[in-house]
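ESCALATION

Customer reports they have been waiting on this structure for their group meeting. Please prioritize. Original submission:
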Amino acid sequence: MNAQLVMGLGGTVDYEVTWDASVLERLVEQYGIGADELSTSAPVDSERSLVAALLAFVRDGVGGEKFVASSDIVEEFASRFERRITLGGTCVRG
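Update from on-call: job pushed to the front of the queue and completed.
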C-alpha cells in the first residue's frame, strides 16, 4: 500500500493506526476472509466483519462510515497496530 489511508475508529475519539500490511494479511488468513465476503454495507459486529469492511472500502477506493457494535471490537483491532488515541471529529480537527 503506497497511498496514505486515514481511519477514525470511534465517535469523538480516534484511533490513528499505522497501517501494517502484514497484520492485515494475518487477519485475513486467521479469519478466512474471501473476496466474496468484502462488503461496505454489512454490519460490523466482530473484528472479522470490521476487517472485511475495511478491505471493501480499500478495494473500492472510497471512504465511508460504519457503525461498530462494540468498542471492544475497535480496541481489539487497533491493539494490533502501532497507534495513537486522539480527539477526533470535525470540531476538533476543523
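Sent to customer with the following note: DSSP finds four helices and two strands in the chain.
Escalation resolved.
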